[in-house]
Design goal:
This protein has helices spanning 10-19, 21-35, 43-55, 60-77, 85-99, 129-142, 157-170, 183-196, 213-228, 248-260, 279-287, 308-316, and strands spanning 117-122, 147-151, 174-175, 201-205, 237-243, 265-269, 291-295, 303-305. By secondary structure, the chain is an alpha/beta fold. β5, α10 and β6 (265-269) form a beta-alpha-beta unit.
C-alpha cells in the first residue's frame, strides 16, 4: 500500500510547475541564447549547451553523457534543427533518469510484512531535514497511516525542539530524551514504542553534523545496530535529505553520506527557491539512488513523491 494512494493530480502538477519555474526560466533563457541565429545543431551549439547544463548544476559527467547522446542523434539524423533541441534534450534527460533507477511513481510502497516500517533520515543541518520529516509525517497520517517520530538528533537542543513542534503541528507522537541523550537509545525507545502500539511507520531523525566519515559511520552504524535489536531488518529505508539550492555542494554531501552509510533513497528540498534544479538530474545519474521526494514549496502538500515523467515535463515543456 502506497504512502500516497492517489494519482499525480492537477494540484500536484501545478505545484511542481511553480516549484521548478526558476530552474525552467534559467534553462530556457540560456538555451535561447545558445540557438540564437542558428538554424541547425552544430558543434558550437553543443559546446554552448554543455556550458548551460554545467552552469545549471547538472554536473560535468552527466552533462557529457547528455551531450554525447545528442551528438549521436545529430550524426544519425544528419540534420537536427535548433527548434528541435529542447524536445531532444527533454527526451534524453528522461531516458537518463529511467536508466538511473528513477521510475515514474506516485507512491512509496510499504511492504505488507514490514510493520512498523522504519525510516532513518540523515543529512546536514540546514537542508530542511526536520521540515521534510514533518511534512512526510503529515502526508502519511493523511493517507491513514499511524506514525511515530524519534528525536535522535540529540546534539542540538534546537533539533529536538523543532521536531517536537512538528509532531504537535501534525499531531503524531514523538519519542524524545532531550539534548545530549544517546541517539541509539532514543532510536531503541522509539521502535519499542512503535512496536507496542502497532504503529505503521517510524521516522528517526539523526544528527545533522557532517563530521569525518569514520565518526559519522560509527554513529549511524550504532543506531542501526540498536534498532535491529527491536526490529531485526530495521531500518527499511535510509533517506538522505539534500538542499537542491546548494547545487554541487549537495552532490558533495551525497558523496560523503553514501560513503558513510547505506543510503537507499533521496529527498531534494527547496527546489522552489533555486534555479539549480538540474542537480536532481546529476545526483540521480552519479549515485544511482532513487529520488523519492522533492520539496517544491512551503506548504505541507509541497513535499511531493518524485515522478520522473512529470518532473521532466515541468522542466522542459514550453507551455
Amino acid at each position: 500500500m502506497g504512502f500516497f494512494g492517489k494519482l499525480f493530480g492537477k494540484e500536484e502538477k501545478q505545484s511542481l510547475d511553480q516549484g521548478l519555474s526558476k530552474t525552467k526560466e534559467s534553462f530556457f533563457g540560456k538555451i535561447a541564447k545558445v540557438v540564437a541565429g542558428k538554424s541547425n545543431v552544430d558543434a558550437e551549439v553543443l559546446d554552448n549547451l554543455e556550458e548551460v547544463l554545467i552552469s545549471g548544476d547538472v554536473g560535468v559527467n552527466t552533462t557529457i553523457k547528455i551531450i554525447k547522446r545528442i551528438e549521436d542523434r545529430v550524426a544519425r539524423d544528419k540534420y537536427v534543427s535548433t527548434s528541435e533541441l529542447n524536445g531532444i534534450l527533454k527526451e534524453e534527460v528522461a531516458a537518463l533518469l529511467t536508466e538511473n533507477n528513477t521510475t515514474d511513481t506516485t507512491s512509496f510502497d510499504i511492504p505488507a510484512d514490514k510493520k512498523p516500517y522504519v525510516l532513518m533520515v540523515v543529512g546536514v543541518n540546514g537542508v530542511g531535514k526536520t521540515t521534510t520529516i514533518g511534512k512526510l509525517a503529515y502526508q502519511l497520517k493523511k493517507s491513514g497511516k499511524s506514525v511515530i517520530l524519534g528525536a535522535a538528533d540529540t546534539f542540538r537542543a534546537a533539533a529536538v525542539d523543532q521536531l517536537t513542534i512538528w509532531s504537535q503541528r501534525v499531531d503524531v507522537p514523538i519519542v524524545s530524551q532531550g539534548m545530549g541523550a544517546d541517539p541509539a537509545s532514543v532510536a531503541f525507545d522509539t521502535l519499542s514504542s512503535a512496536k507496542a502500539k502497532n504503529a505503521d511507520v517510524v521516522i528517526i531523525d539523526t544528527a545533522g553534523r557532517l563530521h569525518n566519515k569514520v565518526n559519522l559511520m560509527n554513529e549511524l552504524t550504532k543506531i542501526k545496530n540498536v534498532m535491529k535489536k527491536v526490529i531485526p531488518d530495521a531500518p527499511h529505508e535510509v533517506l538522505l535529505v539534500l538542499d537542491a539550492s546548494t547545487g554541487q555542494n549537495a552532490v558533495e554531501q551525497c558523496r560523503q553520506f553514501t560513503a558513510a552509510t547505506d543510503v537507499t533513497a533521496l529527498a531534494l528540498t527547496k527546489l522552489d527557491g533555486t534555479a539549480k534544479g538540474g542537480v536532481v538530474i546529476g545526483i540521480s545519474d552519479e549515485f544511482k539512488i532513487p529520488v523519492r521526494y522533492i520539496g517544491v514549496g512551503e506548504k505541507m502538500e509541497d513535499l511531493q513523491v518524485f515522478n520522473r515523467a512529470e518532473f521532466v515535463d515541468s522542466l522542459f515543456s514550453k507551455n
